[in-house]
Structures are given as structure tokens and as C-alpha cells.
Amino acid sequence: MAKFSMPRGLTAFLFTVVSLLVITVAYLSPVARPPVPASKVSARHLPNVKVAVPFGSNEGLLFTSAQLGNTSFLQSGQNAQGDKIRRQIDGHISWKDALAAGEESLDLLLGHRDQSVINNLDQIRDAGWSISPATDTITHEYDEPEGPFASFGIMASNGHSISVKQDKRFDNCLHQDNAATGAEFRNIYNVPGRTIIGDHNFGCAYELKKFVSREGLSLSRLNAYPRMAADSGLIHRREKANPAAAQGLPPANERVPNVWRWSDIVWNVWASEAGDSAPRLKWIFKHHIITASTMGIMDNAADVPYDTLDEPWPGITYDVDDEEFQALLGTPHGKGIVYMLVDHPNALRNKGIESITMFTTEGNDVFYNLLFTLTD
Asked: What is the pLDDT of residue 189?
């Protein structure tokens, strides 16, 4: 029996037709199409800019602006049930995760409160922190005729800027003679105005990770990387020349002082400044936020593309019953406020958070800010 043989030209033609059909189907498929960017990261996000600040926990994600520049954005839309779909920056906190974290924070505020063992400034100093006056360079942004201070009757001149910096070697409950982390919490304390303004706050875990990132190493090598010099933040020359000498270092999360949380440190400075008036604390501002996860949640709350929020004072205020309130409470900046309240019931009793306001201020750029208004 003779074998059938398709002409060579016809074979090539059919192969081409089938290939084009496959490519067309793949292109038209909604699964195969890549997400359309909702916006581009603004020009202020340059390589190696600090964009992550872990306030409420010892660990936090570190994102450089170079990573943000390669980020895809998912569009807001509606799902089959008509519920709003929030955008998520790849690798950052999602709206769903922020809501879950906010729910946990609300549970903490409604639950039993145990007093923190960190109750005075001497404990902070003993952990290698120095406490000193600093220059107030930010209050003027809130002291405009139509600004927040005018709204609440706050006198800017009553504020004191205080820096608490982890710049000394220290022992902790696990290891002795740890190198200083370089962390710093610099805030404005205005006792007559019942206000704290978060100015420059970079915690211990962030500083350790930033150090490794600056040297071009992956975070997975953090545990084996050389310790930092106590004052300059540079690597010891011997260890830089011979990284193997650092193999005996403990993990990074064991190289933080016993006192490390923003909530404990800032509360004790406030209590020292305010004395018997400490429980009257009413307003906590978080100034010039550059934490990508918090910025993303703020943008989502306002339904704007990433890094395009433009809401001058009075901004947008969310009450405790709003979904946006819960999501903002679940950000790193929200968690720090919650821990401050629940960890110091001896003075604050059952004080909670009645609203969260997000607003922008302008300098050489548009800056994100949050205001947490506490209950009386």
C-alpha cells in the first residue's frame, strides 16, 4: 500500500496557520494578559531611598525604591459580588491583610491590657539609647492658618523635639557587647497641645537590614554578616576583609536591645515630659510617611493610584466603623499606636482610637501624613 505524503509546502502552511491561532487565543485570554499598570512610581523614589519603617514589630519588610520601580500594580475594580477590589503592590501588604491586622489591633484595644515592664527613661538608657534635645524642623508644616494646629488650638511653640538614638553598645537577655544598631526615634512632644508628632523614626530591625542592603547583600545573609561599628555604622575593617570572621554572630533578631519598641520608648519620653498630664494625650501625628506598605493602604483607602494621594488638610477622616479605619489601623504606623495604648494601662486605662485622618502636606514634594485621634 502506498504511503500518503502531504506536500512540503502545504505542511508549512498548516503549521503557520495553527501557530497563529494559538498565539491569538493566548493573547485574547484574560488569564494570559498581564496587569495594566495603574501608575508609575513618582520621581522622588530614587535607588537606595529608605522606604520601610517597622514600628510595631521587631521584624519588617525592607523595600528599596529600585524594587518599587519594577512593581506591577493591579487595578481597582469590582468582583462578581460587586465588592470593591483593592490594588496591591506585589510583595507588600494587601488590603485583605491590612484588614486582618486591623481586626487584631481592634481585638487588642477591646481586650485585657497588661502593663509593660518598660516604665522609665533609665531602662531605655541602660539598653544603649541616648536621649537628647533635637531641632524641630517640621512643626511649621502643621502651623499654617488653615492647618491642623489651628483646627485644634495647638501652639507650635510649646513643642519640644527629642531624639532617642540607639548609639551605644549593649547587652541583651541573650548576648553581651552587641554593636549599636543606629536606630533613632525623633519626635515632637507638645504637652499643652496634648500632641506627639512622629518626625524621624527608624527602628533597630530596619537599621540592621538597611545596613546589609547598603552593602549589596541579600537579606538571607544578614545573620552571617559583620557587626556594625558602634558609632560610625561602618563595618569593622578586619571583618570586611574577612567575612568568615563574622560567622559566629547571633541572628539579627537577637542583636536588638531589650528595649526596642517605638511604643515603649515614645510613651516613656511623653510620660517624662507630661507628668500627671500624660493620660490627656489626644493627637498622634505620623509625619512624612515613606513606608511603602502604609502609603499603599492610604492610596487604596482614597481610591487613587499608588503615590498620587493629594489631600491637603483637613484631608479624609475615617471613624471606627469604617473599613478604611480598620485597614489603616493594620499598617505598621497603626500598630505602633495600638501597642502604646494597650501596653500602658496604668496611665491610659482603656483609651482607644476614635478616628484616623490621612492628609498631605507640601514642601519640595507632596508628603503623606496620618493623624490618630485618641478617645478622652
From this structure: 98
b/e 86-124 (16+ beta carbons within 10 angstroms → b): bbbbeebbbbeebbebbeebbebbeeebeebebeebebb
Confidence of residue 227 (pLDDT cuts 50, 70, 90): very low
In the predicted structure, residue 122 carries a pLDDT above the cut 60 = yes
Hey, CA dihedral for 227, 231, 232, 237, is it positive or negative?
negative
pLDDT in tens, 358-372: 999 987 788 999 999
Between 253 and 235, the more confident residue is 253
Region of residue 216 (left: phi > 0; alpha: psi -120 to 50; beta: else): left
**Do the Cβ atoms of 124 and 268 come closer than 8 Å?**
yes
pLDDT at position 157 over 60? yes
Helices (H), the chain: 8-28, 65-69, 95-110, 121-126, 148-152, 204-214, 237-241, 262-274, 292-302, 323-329, 332-342, 345-348
Cell of 257: 536591645
Beta pairing, strands 195-202 & 283-289? parallel
By DSSP bridging, strand 184-190 and strand 316-319 are unpaired
Q: Is 47 helix (H, G, I), strand (E, B) or coil?
A: coil
Rounded to two decimals, the pTM is 0.71
Q: What is the mean pLDDT of the chain?
A: 74
- Edge-to-edge strands of the sheet including 353-362? 129-133, 160-166, 184-190, 195-202, 283-289, 366-374, 353-362, 316-319
Length of the chain (residues)? 376
How far, in Å, are 27, 28, 35, 81 from residue 14 at the CA level?
20, 21, 33, 44
Distance CA 201, CA 289 (A): 10
Which pLDDT tens digit goes with each residue over 330-366? 999 999 999 999 999 999 999 999 999 999 998 778 8
Q: Check if the beta carbon of residue 348 is closer than 8 Å to that of residue 72.
A: no
Which residues are paired to 371 by β-bridges?
A: 285, 357
All 3 cell numbers of residue 341? 495604648
Three cell numbers written together for 291: 513606608
User: Residue 6 pLDDT more than 80?
Assistant: no
